[in-house]
Queue: 3 jobs
Job 1
Amino acid sequence: MNYDTSRKEDRECDRKCSTCAEREGCPAGEEESAKRMGKIGYKIIVASGKGGVGKSTVAVNLAAALRDQGFRVGLLDADITGPSVPMLLGIDERGLVEGRDGILPVDAQGIKVISMGLLLKSSDSAVIWRGPLKMAAIKQFLGDVEWGELDFLIVDLPPGTSDEPLSIVQLVPELSGAVIVTTPQDVALLDSRKAINMAKSLKVPVLGVIENMSGLVCPGCGEVLEIFGSGGGERAAKEMGVPFLGSLPIDPNIASLGDHGETFSGGRDAASDSFDHIVDELKRRLSL
Ligand code: ADP
């Protein structure tokens, strides 16, 4: 993890990597990386225009739902400075192990996971890295990890449309598409439009928009309280000419399960049913 694209010697190392005899400690060359990525069926990024809208929750539960359906799934937490996947999947271990052919992903509940969070001393440690170093880490996470044969690799992007998520999208070869997560408020929708435009400008197919935190079902009377409004995600998707995958209600259970490292997909409540519908819709978009 000491590779830095801003340093000339590391850039040279990167160029020579696929043929170099002293590959140990070097990031994989593009050839090697392409070979590894070629073993993955669908690569899907989960993006959002802003933080806190439930992007990581959707990414983790999407991975879990696909695993439940028998698919082999990997999850790359590409949010280097704010990695939340280890917590959402209840991963306590720290450190990554080097296998015969590269870094070994951690198996969390049957999902192969790589996250910067696994390299931090504690979940409170901060990563104070500049752009080039972060990109070098992502490059290694893609090319130097023994992902093996996978049906899906879900990439949880950092929030927003700054150069960081943009550069990460460019690093993932042959992306199948992007899922955009938003909440119903105008301010979130405004930013989600930007995320859709980012995907479009990078020629990444937008698989669809998910409206999260769309109404709260009152546990007492069953009435739906539209705390942040609802329907904005669908309207925005329509306006931008991209598919709408579905909406997910606010559910205290989702937050509580996430805090305890558990997923809610596959459950028997209204939120799980809505999520099943979203996953079916996504698979339909992929002709599965
Ligand atoms: P992001 O990745 O967009 O920053 P997270 O997935 O980390 O957002 O979610 C932020 C918080 O909101 C987490 O505590 C998560 O459990 C909670 N959360 C996400 N979606 C819902 C939902 N539909 N209902 C209730 N809580 C939710």
Job 2
Amino acid sequence: MNNFKGKTIAVIGSGLIGRSWTMVFISAGYRVEIYDVQTGQATRAIEEISKQLKELQEGGMLRGSLSAQEQMSLISSQEDLKQTLEGAFFVQECVFEDLAAKQDIFHNLESHVGEDVILSSSTSCLLPTEVFLQVTHKKRCIVSHPVNPPYYVKLVELVPHPETDAAVMERTYSLMKEVGQSPVRLRREIDGFALNRIQYAVIAEAWRLVKDGVLSVADVDLVMSEGLGMRYAFIGPMETVHLNAEGLEQYMQRYGEGMKRVLSSFGPVPDFSGEAVKKINQEMCEQIPSDPQHLAARRERRDRFILGLAKLKKDQESK
Ligand code: NAD
């Protein structure tokens, strides 16, 4: 177990994800120093966090044992990168998803911190070998990819660079557990990491079923929200298989051939362009028009549902 409580984490970039990481870290008692290249942005981020923490406290959804005010006292921001990094044992980078910007910032970060400081990136889809290309001591580099919104959706994908030290993976894993996230350790880097590889497989088959006229857009979404999703909020595909027979081995004896037959009937990777996009988009927009107001209302509904589910999971898991 790490013993870093009261120690400082530097968060670089204070947009949506930088703010979320900050809230997660302070909820567990870490101090956070925020730096953003845009003047005034870090101050605005702190104001936004303060507002959110108050709302969470009022709604009984504040994480950790500290009050909103106590958590707020753990955050500060600096206009200077070097000052931000002073005393930090862990740096969580949250700048735009732009390879050149990330390479540049990590090169810069390395020049201000000691070799034992962990350099962690929030990148959604850039590989560690690309992101950390310009870092000399790559053994302290790791990707910690959160899922939006990390305050409720706790998965963090930890992806090593080929040179990442095993101890760095373990220290990051313990830190993430300690702050209440659910980290998973990829043993090597792979395009799309795990979450997007699985998500894209689902999107691709949903797309083919709609494009080939088997299901409507509304019905394919119901297959997930009223079918598979009911289980998947609590147990994954491996446990599903294990429980749906007398164990995984028996499931494969019974259903393995059928699965292979169905899987071999899947079409090629869709190209997600041309007429198909227009047609599927039109059908989607008949249910949810794509103007900002309708989208905002559905996002608000989605976030309310996720919050409710997070509460339910917390209750179920504490039983
Ligand atoms: P964002 O656009 O909301 O915020 C980026 C922030 O970084 C801005 O405030 C910007 O001023 C700042 N910035 C840019 N260059 C900088 C630099 N050199 N130094 C310091 N600050 C700098 O972006 P976001 O949605 O918070 O995404 C941040 C990272 O998190 C990206 O890599 C993204 O792929 C990843 N991520 C995003 C999501 C999501 O759903 N938004 C989910 C998981 C991971």
Job 3
Amino acid sequence: MTETAEERREAAVEAALGKLDLDAKTRLLAGQDMWSLPALPEAGLASLVMSDGPIGVRGVHWSADDPSVALPSPTALAATWDPGLAHRAGVLLAQEARRKGVHVLLAPTVNLHRSPLGGRHFEAYSEDPYLTGRIGAAYVRGVQSGGVGTTVKHFVANDAETDRLTVNNVVSERALRELYLAPFEAIVANAHPWGIMTAYNSVNGPTMTEHHHLVEEVLRGTWGFDGVNVSDWTAARSTTGALTGGLDIAMPGPGTVYGENLARAVRDGEADEALVDAAVRRVLRLAARVGALEGAEPVVTAPPPDADGAALAREIARRSFVLVRNEGGALPLRPGRIALIGAAARDARVLGGGSATVFPARTVSPLDGLTAALPDGTLTYTLGADPNTELPVADAGFELRAVCRDAAGTVLGTRSAPSGHIQWTGADLPDGVTHENLHSVELTGTFTPRESGTHTFGIKGLGPFRLTVAGTVHYDDVQRPDGDDPFLTFFGPPVPHARVGLTAGEPVEVSLAYTVPPPDGRPMRVIGFTLAHQDPQRAPEELIAEAAEAARAADTAVVVVATTERVESEGFDRTDLRLPGHQDDLVRAVAAANPRTVVIVNSGSPVELPWRDEVAAVLLSWFPGQEGGAALADVLTGAHEPGGRLPTTWGSLADAPVTRVVPENGELPYEEGVFIGYRAWEKHGRTPAYPFGHGLGYTDWGYESVEVAVTPHATTATVRLRNTGDRPGREVVQLYLAPVEADPTRPARWLAGFAGVEAGPGETVEATAELPRRAFEIWDEATGSWSFVKGSYEIQIGRSIADRRITATINV
Ligand code: BGC
């Protein structure tokens, strides 16, 4: 028999392993820096490079010097309910990764929206494990079809951010299997990921980087995962614990529990070299797959043709926008005067913060997009309300670069600064700069104000700073921690130091110089500080009155409301779901002034919309990626319909069934068991603002019939539906499975299938969906296995979990 490519790769892996001594092997299991593993020329191995993920590929620098395509947030991708589009997103990201010399994309994030308070939900797909698994599997297949690896993350139960490094999530085995592990299982089964990332948190005791049961027994044993297990950044804490727990790579380096620590443990008889070999084998297999191991043919030898990133970002964005309300056909916009209102209409929030940050070459705001799309003279813009409750990062109007100097003041190197935020980790320093020769970093350049008045400048960060604006030194002192927790300096508000009267359109010189403190002995060095800036502040009532006036004078008012990076980001959770600042008051005032008020909600995850019944239309735009404003113009003008359906229930915090994200004594019990998201809303008999699956589009659909075929192997539903509206459209046909006999231990119904279809006006079309066997199973804790629950079920088919149009009953 001829050898398969896979067998040849395995042979190359064994050959390479045989060339490595213990020190080389243990070195390979530890990051050599923030993003890469060491090259081992003796085994023909190149340095494997990893990068975040998931909406773009940042590359190895936290800098705009090498920009990246920024796709819409993962919540947006899930809102398309379109695995085909997720696959194309993956292909594009592989192309980006190859362009940047990246072998492994640290994505996708497939944790669940357990509680709406989770601060990082924009980066995960859904509250539903089936939808998450379908989108995640398609994304992984897309990335890997471009020859680039993925690390499905964060395995497992990293569903909130509070105390994420230490929290022990206490989760029943049933909830783990049916909810939190389910997307990982589906992706392993359907997409064969080449990697997984183990989370910071613990689950039922052991921390995830040492979780022998879930990693070795479940993931590798039962599911047959053959890829690599990389720790979340700094999540590996114990040399032998991680090794026996099945962790292959400890990131980042230098200075990890692996490397020389692991070599020593083997020599001291504390760690088993066979386990080291097994881990090295998996790393070499990854290298072989991505083409980083000499003599091994990569899985993909001819990557797919290049795609247009901006065009795809725009397509995904408009397909993700969810029209949750559209009274009297307020959208699409009719010709006439449009009053565009809101800070985020001008300074769009296109992506969520934290490790998911990338630096796109351009961003299109709603103001840019609508200005380009609407006839001249029909659009006005007013600010209305500022969502920032503190000084934001210096951004619009600033042209900055970072200049690095040594102790003698000689310039060592420079780097462009995309905003006033500097974050250089480990060896990620401008060319010519090292931690040894670096003495100061000066953020310098010009600021051209958009408004005349008193501008405020401030600093976030610790240490000696000098702030100069328009030739005047406003601060020259040491900024010290406020309280005991140095993290507050990074997560807390910036300190205002200068109030300067400036004139719109007249540039001034700005400089913030930071003196780098001497090394403190920590292996990982970080240069991080922020220049913050706030435009002239006007009384909120005055801004709102001005916006209401503009709305009154227009045919339609379009208000863009948004969260800020202080509301939704990585590293912390939310404490409420309100829109920050005076945005609720703004919407109410505008709606009172103009009955045709359309609100665009620019947030990555649910916010409360207390005025939602007072406005004509509400469109959720997520964090829409770099082309968000262009996509918004596409759907507002009616060139395209908004295609999204809610991947997560939107409701108020007071009604939300699962709200606890704060551990007590280090533990967070998942007391609700299998009832999260819509499963919980239904169990508690509560009605959310907008149900799971909801989304209107611009046409209407009649559900005509369903036929179900049940065979021993599959249950397949074929649904006939008609586009009853007057324009072409796309519908997401959703299938919910409901036991006829209510069982209090199971949800009333759950998503078991979906299919997207397109049809012209008046046309009928068929949607076919196969319900997986797993949809009928529960995890039986007594036997520790899946149990198929026989009986009568309704397959309820419709437009959302609440708008069910036709039903078929089956006996299985
Ligand atoms: C995040 C990961 C990310 C890693 C590297 C961590 O803080 O949780 O999702 O991949 O950093 O940036």
